[in-house]
Amino acid sequence: MSSYVGVVVSDPWLHSQFTQVELRTLKSKFNSNKTLLERFTSYADTSDQEVDFETFLRAYLSVQARGVEKSGGSKASSSSSFLKTSTTTVHHAINESEKASYVSHVNSYLRDDPFLKSYLPIHPATNAFFDLVKDGVLLCKLINLAVPGTIDERAINTKKILNPWERNENLTLGLNSAKAIGCTVVNIGTQDIAEGRPYLVLGLISQIIKIQMLADLNFKKTPSLFQLVDDTQDAEELMGLAPEKVTNFSSDVKDGEAYAYLLNALAPEHSSHVALETKDPTERAKKVLEQAEKMDCKRYLSPKDIVDGSANLNLAFVAQIFQHSSKSTSFSEMMTDDVETSREERCFRLWINSLGTATYVNNVFEDLRNGWVLLEVLDKVSPGSVNWKHANKPPIKMPFKKVENCNEVIKIGEELHFSLVNVAGNDIVQGNKKLLLAFLWQLMRYTMLQLLKNLRSHSQGKEITDADILYWANRKVKRVGRTSQAESFRDKNLSSGIFFLELLTAVEPRVVNWSLVTSGETEEDKKLNATYIISVARKLGCSIFLLPEDIIEVNQKMMLILAASIMYWSLQQQLDTDSNVSEDATDEGDANTVTGEISNLSLDEASESSLVQDQELLTKADEDKDEVDGDGDGENNNDA
Prior knowledge:
It is a single chain. By secondary structure, the chain is an all-alpha fold. It folds into four domains: 2-92, no CATH class; 96-213, Calponin-like domain (Actin-binding Protein, T-fimbrin, domain 1, Orthogonal Bundle); 339-438, Calponin-like domain (Actin-binding Protein, T-fimbrin, domain 1, Orthogonal Bundle), CATH 1.10.418.10; 466-630, Calponin-like domain (Actin-binding Protein, T-fimbrin, domain 1), CATH 1.10.418.10. The protein is 56% helix and 1% strand. Strands 1-2 form a two-stranded antiparallel ribbon. Helix 9 packs across helix 26 and helix 24 crosses helix 30. The longest helix is centred in the C-terminal third of the chain and has 27 residues, at 556-582. It is globular and about 75 Å long. This is BnaCnng38580D protein. It is found in: Cytoplasm, Cytoskeleton. Residues 96-213, 225-326, 342-448, 463-571 form the Calponin-homology (CH) domain.
């Protein structure tokens, strides 16, 4: 698998200034403009000086530095809290208190893990934590700690010494699984973690721990939260709020008084008025932590962290207090649970957040009602489709402004050929779950089909269809001598998981350990195979958000997305291989020839005649399309 090789920069200092994601983006831009750069150097009579990628990077840093100087350093203030920019170099400042807290968390929760216990405890004053993260095992274990069952641990490579391919598999599995539980990993690549870049590692680990600490802060696990509201309408609004919906976890808690009152109310048997009577904030913080320890709250922050107003650590502290004080009440009977709707909401929520939109979605049914997030998503998947001059930015108080946004969403959906019969913007504003989920499904499907379309020849004017994906998957499995075939994405035989495991083997022979695969005949065997499929697909590099139940129950929509994701990964590997070849083309004519070959990328193996094979697949797929879509509602049914 070629993806484990990052962009190599020979100058260590220069390499340290960029993440792998940034390097890949800049490398792509450099290659696409290489001819223009060569013409420029020729015009400037400096043809004896080669314009290489590292020269390009240095020029890029220089331009960025001048931009920061002119803006008065504003760029630094708008970036991550871990990132600080100077005029010549990018410096990444590490919060040692947060690092120590995360190390303590790992030592506490994973000390009995069969694989990690020989490496724990880690001393927070050293860099052992960043070294331990490099092989991806700790990352995967933390994700399973935050959301149990996310990763099938049979898919984790846990040998004492891992080769680069195995290490990259773990890191790819970890990053894709992090996305699947709600982490934002837009600017983080596997190579960045493999290099143990502290600011990126801490940024990712903090998100995972936050998800773990806030896991019980929902109405299913803690129905007593309904005591915070007086009527059903308020309860619906509360369900849409982010878990940490307070003014802030910094300045408001720095003096420790709020903690003292809270702990006195929650655990009066451990309370004393000493904390409130103490005038010194640091001493008061010490008393607060002592009282919290009596409630069995683990001590991950220091009095100084409270006084300094460390937002991440204070949020984790409050979450711990909540976990040790919440009690189940009769309000649990108020919770209705539509399992299928809940699963779909989860899938679309995680998918939207993975796109890197500015607005983080906590609840699809509440957060999308004003139309703004949907416009952000549409602009991501179809750049330029949104006229932002006509959009109303939150907070939106007037209902008709929300309707205007949602009407624009419907209009763009129709332009993208979504099936939106009798659907109006007001349906979204009113929170019609069925119509909203149907719209999101078409949006997700459109995104995946566009990705596939952009990776293959469309000189014949052909669009990628569900039937094309099904035919590609069946052909791929058959070509490696496997016998499984899928009649449609509703084929009940898919519930065993064998077909998808054979498809994964077909695109990458090393990725499936067949000694771990069951026959898929019993429900238990199906569950084992389904969890393994999801982890193996993520390990390969597929960004997917389905659950094992979607495979076991043969959820048609999720089966299509799973197959399409595997197909996209397979074609992307061929494209990357051909791109490496194209770098050897020195003149413009050769480069155009290679580009032409890439644009005619086959749906099957690149070693065959891609144009002929592609036409053969499309012709056959068109012939089979009526048969594939013939039973039931059809694979291409987009009706809302």
